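[step 3/7] fold_predict: job queued, chain A
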Amino acid sequence: MERTSGFTILVRIPYDRCADRVAALLAKKMETLPGFLRNSVTWGQGEEKARHTDFTVRTGPPVYFCDPHSPWQRGTNENTNGLLRQYFPKDTDPSLHTQEELDRVAAELNGRPRKTLGWKKPIEVFNELIVEHCVAMTD
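[step 4/7] structure written:
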């Protein structure tokens, strides 16, 4: 979840959610983003996040953690989790879904206008960020 735009990327974690697998798969997906959007990452608590240093070594940005039992520190993520519940009810095992299904859900979320964005879509704001960065680089 990119904070400015609300742009969402979903990553399928097959099988178990061991820390090595989670770090590797999230790093691989993170590498698809433009470098200027990879300044830092905030994760919630969880054993599957134990290899955060491997993630940082591979991708560059530091990983920050919210305090335990403090969902207000992850407001954007909590809101997105609520939106994801429309597609995946609480007890759904996301690993049973294909990456293609997750990409379709992310595309729907990224194409949904948001009040917090002045009724723009996350994909529109995300693209504006990229264009602004490119223009700034040419100035």
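[step 5/7] annotate
The CA atoms of residues 10 and 102 lie 6 Å apart.
Strands lie at 41-43, 63-65.
exit 0
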